[in-house]
Amino acid sequence: MNVKKYLSKATIHFLIIVYIVFLLFPLVWVVSSSLKSTPEIYSGSPTILPQQITFDHYISVIEGQQVFLTMWNSVIVGIVSTILVLLIAVPSAYAMVRYKSIINSGILGWILVSQIFPVILVMIPLYVLLRYMGLTDSLVGLTLIYVVWSLPFVLWMMHGYVKSIPIELEEAAVIDGANRAQVIFKVLMPLLLPAIGASALFAFISAWNEFFFAFVLMKSPALATLQVELARYTGMEGQARTGPLAAASVIATIPSIILFVFMRKWLTTGLVSGALKG
Amino acid sequence: MKRNLIILFFFVIVSVVIFLMTREEKEKKNLPLRFVSLAWQERSIATNLSIVKEWNDQHPDLQVEYIQGTWNSAHDYLITAFETGDVPDIFHYESSVIIDYAMRGYLTDLAPYITTEMKNDILDVAWATVTRPNGEVGGIPFLIESLVVLYNKSLFDEAGIVPPTIEKPWTWDDLRKAAITLTKDTDGNNVIDQYGAGIGLRNSANIIMNTSISFGGSFFRKEGDHFIVKVKDEEKKLLQTIVDMIYKDKSVSPASIGESGAGMIPGFFSGKYAMLVGIGSWGRQQLVENAPKDFKWGVMPPLKAKTQMYGVSTQTLSIPKKSKRTKEAMMYIDYMLSSTNTARLALDDWMIPSRKSCLEMPEFKDTIGSWDITCSAVNTLGVGSWLGAPGYVEWKSRVANPVLQELFAGRLTVDEAAKRIERESNIVLSRYKKRGEVW
Q1: At B378, is the secondary structure helix, strand, or coil?
Q2: Are A37 and A52 in contact (CB under 8 A)?
Q3: Which of B67, B200, B267 sits opposite A44 (nearest CB)?
Q4: Confidence band for A186, pLDDT divided at 50, 70 and 90
Q5: A136 close to B (CB below 8 A)
Q6: Thinking of the domain B31-145+313-378, which architecture would CATH place it in?
Q7: Do A124 and B34 touch (CB under 8 A)?
Q8: Nearest to B269 among A42, A228, A238 (CB)
């Protein structure tokens, strides 16, 4: 029995290790390529680790193009759009779940349908609208687009989470003398923290990775976002400046990693506090 | 109270919108000319920026703003710009796409703005890539893209093969023979580890179309006022030659099927392929900057089939019809594409300059970097009959590339591929015919 248990545990660990290697390999490859000299990248006999470490690509990225400025733009747009999305989505989802009305299912259906439209189809009317409002080539305009773009999905996510919380918890709090605000902020919010965390992560990553809107809407080089900047390392017929692209990509992943580490802690805290208070 | 709040809310919204709109109107008056460049190599970007800076220093009242575009998204970016009217004043692209834009009415006809000096100095074959039959010019061609064959000098010396010269070019049969000789199992494990040639066949329509001219083919034929696609014996001969080299001679690496020309370069450096066939002349830049120190290479003159004539495409600067400052934009183009600046751009992008005066410069006759042989190809460049065929860009990606991919992967015979290309091509082209777009 013990042997069987041991074997099963060992298999699980082995599979986890294989999975981790599978997930980490692209990252290791990018980091390794960013530290190789260009002739080594093109050597035709690739190695996982660089034979000779060089920081030339990092220096070229930092000196030559605006990687930090574009990263800053991405961070600003990502954070502001995430906050706005949550500010709209959380109360909307709560209202849709708790205040039944005949239009609720229609609204939910429409939200789902709105996800079907491809970007290129909505780009031109959206652009015309933003230009009319003077919001093309503006981080405000881009932020609004990201809010509109990720709101339906976040609303769907939050709708599901709010629905899964039993209304009896709120009723119990009301019986104990809590008012509506106390019900929402002291009972519901702790339970929703993991959902808010997951939704925030989704909204931020959607904005962080988005390329096409940023590329078309932002004309001024000073307003470009990180994804647009990274695309500029690629050229005709699938060519790329591999070394600088890898170095810029490594720099670009740092804020995402920091955010994930921060969010992971927050997610766990939210989960635990929700469980205790519920 | 509630009513007052609603009125206040709308008042704030309207004020913000009016403020934003008037701000835009004020700013428009002093906006610089917007130039979208697709330069992407480090040196080329530096040269573009430096030309813009020189212009801005000399023209304080007419500044140019450099906007870095990307090849992968340029089409979507430009179409959105054309449709919304928020266009750049000048943009960099390539002839095969801008002729499509010209037909759709997106571009300013530059013919009235071209100076005699520029008109006479740019090669006729380059002008032919951007000029419609009615004389309308969609862009100014400044760099010529041509296909070259690169070879590894050390492997040639080792095998005792004498490379061709401008005076004595190779035929495709010569190339096949050399490729067979150079294909080797160097370590005796019954696996070929040195192929005679590598050909980037992942998206091969470009190579096949441009090379088909030398076989006397063209795929596209004009029938009345519209185009049809026919795959005749000439085109089939080219396709069969490549298929035979992969499967019969086994002298072309099977890795070619899924790789781009650029993707074959590391294998070329490591001696896996003795020749790289049909790579753009820009590939030389990778060799100069990234090849191992002891790596010796050369460029072959165009291969001869029936002729040495190859299809050409050019990189261009155009002005959208919706740009409100055509004259100013053309002044900048004149400056940027002066003989001296065109030479700078060509040298840094490792492409052939379109100006005759540049080709006379010693830099373009240099044996270092094989500029002499590369530039000699201007005498054997021709314009494919597909130029101006409505739907050509879609045809390349939807029909030619996928069918050719299947052919070279061994899933179709040449005859089957020919039939599929004809059938599927004419479905695509008939859609464009219905729209009434005419070259």
Answers
A1: helix
A2: yes
A3: B267
A4: confident
A5: yes
A6: 3-Layer(aba) Sandwich (3.40)
A7: no
A8: A42
Question: Using CB atoms, which residue from B42, B65, B280 is nearest to A237?
Answer: B280
Q: Which of B20, B25, B92, B201 to mutate to test the interface with A (most CBs of A within 10 A)?
A: B20
Taking the CA of residue B313 and the nearest CA in chain A, the distance in Å comes to 13
State pLDDT tens for residues B147-168. 899 999 999 999 999 999 999 9
* Distance between B34 CA and the closest CA of chain A, angstroms: 9
Q: Which of B424, B414, B323 is nearest to B110 (CA)?
A: B323
Q: At B177, is the secondary structure helix, strand, or coil? A: helix
- Interface predicted TM-score (ipTM): 0.73
Residue A144 pLDDT more than 80? yes
Instruction: Indicate where chain B has its CATH 3.40.190.10 domain(s).
Output: 31-145+313-378, 147-311+390-435
DSSP states of B70-114? -TTTHHHHHHHHHHHS---SEEEEEHHHHHHHHHTT-B---GGG-
Q: Using one digit for the tens of pLDDT, what is the confidence trace for A35-67?
A: 998 878 877 677 888 888 999 889 888 876 688
What is the predicted pLDDT for the residue at A267?
62
Q: What is the pTM of this model?
A: 0.81
Q: What is the DSSP string of B224-240?
A: TTEEEE---HHHHHHHH
Yes or no, beta carbons of A237 and B203 under 8 Å apart: yes
How far apart are alpha carbons B209 and A215 in whole angstroms?
A: 32
Distance from CA of B378 to the nearest CA of A (A): 21
Task: Please give the average per-residue pLDDT across A225-232, as a whole number.
Answer: 87
Point out the residue among B21, B71, B266 whose CB comes nearest to the CB of A42. B266
- Is residue B241's pLDDT more than 60? yes
Instruction: Express each pLDDT in B263-281 by its tens digit.
Output: 888 889 889 999 999 888 8
For domain B147-311+390-435, give the fold. D-Maltodextrin-Binding Protein; domain 2 (3.40.190)
| Mean pLDDT of all residues in B340-355 | 95
Task: Give the amino acid at B49.
Answer: L
Nearest CA in chain A to B80: A124
**Is residue B6 pLDDT above 70, yes or no?**
no
Residue B149 β-bridge partners: B277, B300
Cβ-defined contact of B289 to A212 (cutoff 8 Å): no
